[in-house]
Design goal:
By secondary structure, the protein is of the alpha/beta class. The protein is about 40% helix and about 15% strand. Helix 11 crosses helix 12. The radius of gyration is 23 Å and the shape is globular.
Length: about 425
Amino acid sequence: MDTRFNTICVVGLGYIGLPTAATLASRGYDVIGLEASKKVVDTINEGRVHIVEPDLDVLVKGAVNAGKLRAVIEAEPADAFIVSVPTPINGDKTPDVSYIQEAIKTIAPVLTKDNLIIIESTSPIGTVEQVVSLVAELRSDLKISKSRTERSDIYFVHCPERVLPGKIIRELVDNDRIIGGYTPEGAQRAAELYRSFVSGELLLTDDKTAEMTKLVENAYRDVNIAFANELSLLCDYLDINVWSLIEFANRHPRVKILQPGPGVGGHCIAVDPWFIVAAAPERAKLIATARNVNDSKPDYVVSKVVAAADKFKNPVVACLGLSFKADIDDLRESPALRIVERLEKEACGTILVVEPFIEKLPDSLQNTSIRLTTLEESLTKADIIVLLVDHKQFRLVDREKLQQKIVIDTRGIWR
């Protein structure tokens, strides 16, 4: 560990913040997890976790028992503050940075000279600049210069997370990190901290380039997924098996088409491209089109289910999966969840949901007739089976049990 950072505060103990806090604690730092939810705070202080991520429970329990990690509701002084809070989009597809602003307002009273503030939350371009201005406004007693060449009492950095749910603990350590400083000194200071637990390469740049890098990474993925999803629409229309088509096309040495699905979910790929569009809408036409293609895919899936349901008097529809990707419990921006919500509004029969990684339906499906059930029951009772998430246990389904059913497989695992 770097002895200049004895105490580190991680603001936001969600899917990224908690693994980051636990990893830092495992490296010997005294870590304070600042979290708005008392339930989450109590859970962590008991050495337990509130999210599903391989090995996270063991890491958190060890850190808490060693006295290296504790969660709090109110801000406390620290040497470095890592902000890892949500950055959703508004209804008009513009970025919502209110959580970052609230995080800065919360820690502002306890800031002291030479503190380091790192924004890990995926952010629209110019967010660090806004944070600098906000701290200057809130703490007039500190020297906060808006000049990138003049030293301030506080160092400001953007270092976007780049991890994959289900592999977060390993990728926090192994992946390269982009460290964008508002000043070069800030980037160097942050690099000293990340070197203590990251084995990947540390690439130093300015804050705006770091902000754009994360957005571009996810927009690149989104555009490629949109191509696959559009192919699936074309193939349905032309009566071609899209999965075979992609398999054949990918035999070309310079072609690597991704797999289509029911849409795009997760906090990153389904959201971040809109940050680029908002920054320059007239210059981000391809990115905007890709977003619209992927956002429209759930509606297409719903139309297929409704058409199938019309063939029955009182159909039973089993929807397999609610999370945004396989083998995790994360429902953020999940196209599967959107599809089930729409089907409930369409009143196209009795709807059963199978999601092995949750214990109760999300709030949006509470107070509805939808029932969370087992895979076995759904396969027995359903007339229509809609495969929305390629969880491992769904891949292992006996194909004989799908006979005499209408199957809508949006992931291509039963083809």
